Task: inverse folding
């Protein structure tokens, strides 16, 4: 009799736990219906992510060459930061973006964003974490014509051009 009673209690406990698990899944389904994943495109990325590009440590490295001619030269590091503009999470987001540098500036040939075809455009390939917060730095150099200003490699009117995007954003 005690064994039968113990078996019935154990079975009722198992069924109770199964029933609770089903409610949790139903709640998740309801939440996903309330906040569906939004497919990111090059047009919608700015709604969910902000791009901040800042020149760091701009150094004047001008010199007089072998023929006694003055040569303009400079180097800098560009810091690229991304951060979310809305509460939520990102899933499997990959972004390719381009940043055009001011006349006279070019991406250092040792930098991963360098392209022989277009030295004054920094190409970045980003794999975004779920938080949406991301930082990377790139080395740039200058020489020759440094107009309009050698101390501002990206200029005041720069834009980040989104070339391609894949992944989703889910509002919380």
Result:
């Amino acid at each position: 009799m005690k064994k039968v009673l113990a078996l019935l209690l154990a079975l009722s406990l198992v069924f109770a736990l199964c029933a609770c698990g089903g409610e949790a899944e139903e709640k998740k389904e309801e939440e996903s219906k309330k906040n569906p994943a939004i497919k990111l495109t090059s047009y919608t990325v700015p709604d969910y992510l902000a791009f901040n590009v800042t020149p760091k440590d701009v150094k004047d490295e001008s010199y007089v060459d072998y023929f006694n001619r003055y040569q303009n030269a400079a180097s800098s590091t560009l810091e690229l930061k991304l951060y979310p503009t809305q509460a939520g999470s990102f899933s499997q987001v990959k972004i390719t973006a381009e940043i055009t540098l001011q006349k006279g500036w070019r991406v250092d040939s040792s930098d991963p964003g360098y392209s022989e075809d277009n030295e004054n455009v920094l190409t970045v390939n980003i794999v975004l974490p779920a938080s949406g917060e991301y930082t990377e730095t790139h080395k740039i150099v200058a020489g020759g014509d440094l107009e309009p200003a050698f101390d501002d490699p990206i200029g005041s009117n720069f834009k980040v051009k989104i070339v391609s995007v894949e992944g989703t954003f889910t509002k919380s």
